[in-house]
Amino acid sequence: MKIFTSAQIHELDRYTIEHEPIKSVDLMERAAKAITRAITEEWTTHTPVVVFAGPGNNGGDALAVARLLINEGYKVSTFLFNITNHLSDDCVTNRQRLLEGKHAKDFTEITAKFDPPELTADTLVIDGLFGSGLNKPLAGGFASLVKYINQSPAKVVSIDVPSGLMAEDNTYNVRANIIHATLTLTLHEKKLSFLFSDAQQFIGRVKVLDIRLSQEYIQKTEAQYYALEESDIRSRLLHRDDFAHKGDMGNALVIAGSYGMSGAAILTTRACLRSGVGKVTVHTPKKNYDIMQVSVPEAILQMDHEETAFTEAVDTDDFDALAIGPGLGRQEPTAIAMIAQIRRAQCPIVADADALNILASHRAWMQQLPKGIIMTPHAKELDRLTGSPANADFERLHRTRELARSLQAYIILKGHNSALCLPNGNVIFNSTGNSGMATAGSGDVLTGIITALLARGYHQQNACMAGMYLHGLAGDLAAKDLGKESLVAGDIINYLPKAFMLLDD
User: Fold this and answer.
1) Which end of the chain is more exposed for a tag (fewer CB within 10 A), N or C?
2) Number of other CB atoms surrounding residue 178 within 10 Å
3) Pairing label, strands 225-227, 124-128
4) Residue 433 near residue 475 (C-beta atoms within 8 A)
5) Which residues have C-beta within 8 Å of that of residue 140, sequence separation ≥ 6?
6) pLDDT in tens, 42-98
7) DSSP states of 136-178 as a string?
8) R_g of the chain, CA atoms, integer Å
9) What's the whole-number average pLDDT of the chain?
10) Which residues of 32-50 are buried (b: 16+ CB within 10 A; e: fewer)?
11) In degrees rounded to 5, what are phi and psi of residue 52?
């Protein structure tokens, strides 16, 4: 599914108005009816409602919602902020419609001083001050109003976007001046900023309302951002032939685990085996032999000549994919062997964990990475790779996109909505997964899944997409049965078979 920017959404509105055809104020009425329906599903007519409307089209939406709620029997107090004596055309129309209503008695238009109403725990605030078109932080009186609302015990429903929050980049926003919504009723699709962790405190619960915008525009317009859907994965899965043998199903090499970190190698290997690969060979230090042999008897062991660390690059001619990094350690002999291994590899590579930490401390080596390499950093690993901590999630995503472009790599920035950044600069967000997966070893499992899919013959992009989705889906299935609090990385592996079965129905 495409995720459009605020500028593209504005164009989508305009295109819908011109080609449906429909008047802009009628499209606003369609949106207001959807918003009103969502509100009435959650709050009864006994709930006192206070509507704060801004001077633009978000304010027009709010005025239309106020009128519709009054018609439904709600007691509504409406405040329209017209500080500059300039309202959008549709806001003017909806002001007039509201004032012409039989029961619209409690309406105040603010042009100068404002005496705020009392907001109690029983009050429902409708936030229609500013929508997705906002491009600078709120200041002055509007900032003061936002703080007043946030300090109150009232429930808040924001129309489209919480006022003060920008639809994409909030890196330099003033966070004290953003509405903390209880519920955000967003139109057509989630906005890009909603996918970032640093926006969650503002958006509350999110409901996406379909207001039937132009499908023609949606289909023909290119986007930079996408969200994975189940259909995207089903169409990309490779199905096992009835006459297949293990040689047909790919041969993966996993280079992982220093002494004391064999668990990372075990998890990566088990996940790889559970993801359909024919054979897995694990290259690991000698002291890991016994635990690897017992924990993953299906794997072939290839021991490093050193007792406790990876120190020698190996041939990859017989392998279809390579995973390197989980639990590897960062000692200098390991670092030298790691970059030598990457240079030597003749197959697709997944670099994770300590492989990324080594690259972060030897950043000149990144220019030696082969095109098409897959990297799977979490936020802190990405910050190390780029040289400094990011100020916000959008900035970190931007840096990841630039790194993927410059290296011609596939980089998965891991998180609740893991973001696959492609070599062409596009971004694909995962839609599965849960907070129970925030546990040690979860990333090792993802590395194993992607490596198996690469060895099976998936293209890097498809391996990353399917790998992210399956990883999250298995985590969701595990959390459903076991709960989020008790989830461990091994549970994700154990639920991979069920995840594959659900997608293979």
Assistant:
1) C
2) 27
3) unpaired
4) yes
5) none
6) 999 999 999 999 999 999 999 999 999 999 999 999 999 999 999 999 999 999 999
7) S---HHHHHHHHHHHHS--EEEEESS-TT--SS--TT--GGGS
8) 27
9) 97
10) bebbbebbbeebeeebbbb
11) -110, 115
Q: What is the tens place of the pLDDT at every residue in 360-397? A: 999 999 999 999 999 999 999 999 999 999 999 999 99
Q: Which residue carries 């004290």 as its tokens?
A: 176
pLDDT digits (tens, 9 = 90+) for 90-142: 999 999 999 998 777 899 999 998 999 999 999 999 999 999 999 999 999 99
Rounded Cα–Cα distance for residues 158 and 180 (Å) = 9
* Helical (H) or strand (E) element with 25: helix 24-40
Q: Which of 370, 366, 1 is nearest to 208 (CA)?
A: 1
At 135 the three-state DSSP class reads coil
Read off the pTM: 0.96
Q: Are 98 and 107 in contact (CB under 8 A)?
A: yes
Residues 6+ apart with CB under 8 A from 65: 32, 35, 36, 39, 51, 126, 128, 159
Q: The tokens of 45 are what?
A: 């007519």
Instruction: Please give the structure tokens belonging to residue 320.
Output: 């279809």
DSSP calls for 274-338: TTT-SEEEEEE-GGGHHHHHHH-TTSEEEE-SSSSS-------TT-SEEEE-TT----HHHHHHH
